[in-house]
Amino acid sequence: MNNSDEKYFFARLSDMVSRCERNDICVFSDFLDERQSVQADEWCRRNAGGLSYKLWGGYDGAGRKMLAVYPDFYEDYIIEDFPFRCITFTYRKEDKLTHRDFLGTFMGMNFRRDIIGDIVVGEGMTQAFVMNFAGKLISATVSKIGKTGVKCSDGKPFEMEVRQEFRTVSGTVASLRIDSIVSLATGLSREKSAVMIRSERVEINHIITETVSAEVKTGDIISVRGHGKYILSEVGGNTRKNRIHIIIKKFV
After folding, report:
1. d(CA 59, CA 157)
2. What are the DSSP calls for the chain, one per residue?
3. Alpha-carbon gap, residue 40 to 35, rounded angstroms
4. What is the model's pLDDT at position 2?
5. 103 CB-near residues (< 8 Å, 6+ apart)
6. In whole angstroms, how large is the CA radius of gyration of the chain?
7. Residue 203, CB half-sphere, CA atoms under 13 Å: how many?
8. Burial class (CB in 10 A: 0-12, 13-18, 19+), 148
9. With 90 as the cut, is the pLDDT of residue 160 above it?
10. How many Cα atoms are found within 13 Å in the side-chain-facing hemisphere of 236?
11. pLDDT, mean of residues 140-156
12. Contact 121, 98 (CB under 8 A)
């Protein structure tokens, strides 16, 4: 997000808090992407006051989440009130549908991206989280994804096994600075990695960094535009030349 987008985003969060305080009700956002979720969490910790808040996307580890801001008395049943539903699609296992196939169908129905949460694709079954009004329309009208026939229902709970595959990159770095980590992860030189960072093409934990000397720690997620997403998995000991052994995992 640029500065104008960020100001608008934070203004929306402020409006959510104001409406919650004024009307003593629970207020929900649309679906947020990973960066927006991080920013919303940080903003709410500082600005939600006596209100509670929760980010939820339908299952633990969801990438796209919805924010709820609410009075404390909603706490026990807030999960049930999130205004989205899980839609289940079944089809032949030999029909290899992709995330892009489903998203393309939904966007072709003129749904904005923030109406749609995670889409988890498996063999012969896909489950997608969408806002309630969109779920009703999808369930009533979608019988094909692309050219593939599907059966659609919205009565099943989420039951997909979410597995993330990685490719391992290991080596040594002079330090845990972001420019060193990006260089090893992508195979770019330190100089080209620094250019990527200064050009706002690198994120740490979904937040853009322009500082080539920013430190990365174990568990941090690094995104490099055009090269993929990585996690600093392990930091080991030092070599004789005082370089640091690390293991990076690339999301595939």
Report:
1. 10
2. --HHHHHHHHHHHHHHHHHHHHHT--EEEEEE-HHHHHHHHHHHHHH-TT-EEEEE-SSTT-SSEEEEEE-GGGGGGHHHH-SEEEEEEE--TTS---HHHHHHHHHHTT--GGGEEEEEE-SSEEEEEEEHHHHHHHHHH--EETTEE-EEES-SPP-------EEEEEEEESSSBHHHHHHHHH---HHHHHHHHHTT-EEETTEE---TT-B--TT-EEEETTTEEEEEEEEEEE-TTS-EEEEEEEE-
3. 9
4. 66
5. 116, 119
6. 21
7. 18
8. middle
9. yes
10. 11
11. 94
12. yes
pLDDT above 70 (res 1): no
B/e letters for 97-123, b = 16+ CB within 10 Å, e = fewer, are beeebbbebbeeeebeeebbbbbbbee
Three-state SS letters, 164-182: CCEEEEEEEECCCEHHHHH
pLDDT averaged over every residue in the chain: 95
Residues 6 or more apart from 241 whose CB is under 8 A from it? Answer: none
Does the structure show a pLDDT above 80 at 3? no
Q: What is the pLDDT of residues 199-216, one digit of tens each?
A: 999 999 999 999 999 999
Average pLDDT over residues 36-50: 94
How many residues in the chain? Answer: 252
Q: Are 59 and 158 in contact, with CB atoms under 8 Å apart?
A: yes
Whole-prediction pTM: 0.83
Give the pair of three-digit tokens for residue 36.
């927006």
